[in-house]
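Hey team,

Sharing the Phytoene synthase run so nobody has to redo it. Sequence (271 residues) first:
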Amino acid sequence: MAAVSDQYMISVLRPFVAATGPVLSGLRDADPFRLGKLAQRRALALEGPVTDEPPATTRPQKARRLLRRTRTAVVDRLATSKLPGTPRWAVMGTEERDAWWVGRVGRFTSAVAAFPGVGGALARRLPVSDILGVAAQGLVVCAIAGEHGVTDRDEQVRLLASVLFDRELRPAGDAFHADVQRDAGALTGDLSSDEHSGDGRLTALARAVWRMGRSLFALHDELGRRPQGRRSWRLLANLPVVGAVGAYKAERSGLRRAARRAATWVAREHG
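Structure output:
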């Protein structure tokens, strides 16, 4: 018999899915440094007629030329980076993008554990690793769904339930109703505020991820079913000194397993 009802699980997963939009956008940091536009301009420049620059004869002319060449080299390098908003990202396959999300989310949630006071006093009484681990898996699963074209919220709820909890749900009703939007807003907090920049935005993002993990922790009776890391890493996590390394490796291994399950589910249900 299920530890929690289908309806209760749906009521927890819907706000989580709704909150993934701004959080994944923050993690994605679309078109970082406006690389997409810079790369487009560079491509147009390369397609145009080649003109020889007049020889630089003075120090200011040589300095300006060096600056232009350096800037061009940097743009060319960044334009081939595997980052959203770059031409390289546009031609990446879904498997490459899936792997990118596993790396980006995994590294960030590992860093969240080091954010001072991100969970407040409550963090000292809760299993931080489990909360951030399930948050990471949920975010990666939703990111992969989006990369594979599955954007319907209730389909993502079904996907999350299947991958994380081995449950087959059939959500019915309005996935966008006011209660869902309100609860999703409580999870993301002031993440979308224009007041945040730099470290302030990272802290807001870290707190949002923590709150999202706590929301899934409400399904704690089901958490044992989520994808686990390799047994060797989980055993290492129980040892003193090296336990932190084992826990990190175990969560990253579990994250990759969740990603594979998500891709398999999407191929089966929407292939």
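The CA atoms of residues 176 and 190 lie 20 Å apart.

Ping me if you want the raw files.
A.
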